[in-house]
Amino acid sequence: MQNKPYYSLAETGRFLGISRIAVYHKVKKGELEAVRIGRSWAVPAAALEYFLGRSLRETDKRELDTAVKRVVSEYGDVLEKLGRE
Hints:
2 domains
């Protein structure tokens, strides 16, 4: 990927290995974040990174942190025993 702030739907399709129309459908379904610029759509680089699983949003990081803390508090003794085996 190039270091650009936004990617066209065609560029995004090339990164994802799908057609421009398939990217458009993902945008319309809300599966992929995009912004409207005039009559065209552009996908922010951060949204593409997130979609590809290369980065996490801050809210996702907090949610994961909360889940890990809950699991450790509830199953800490079991995890400790598993770690010894």
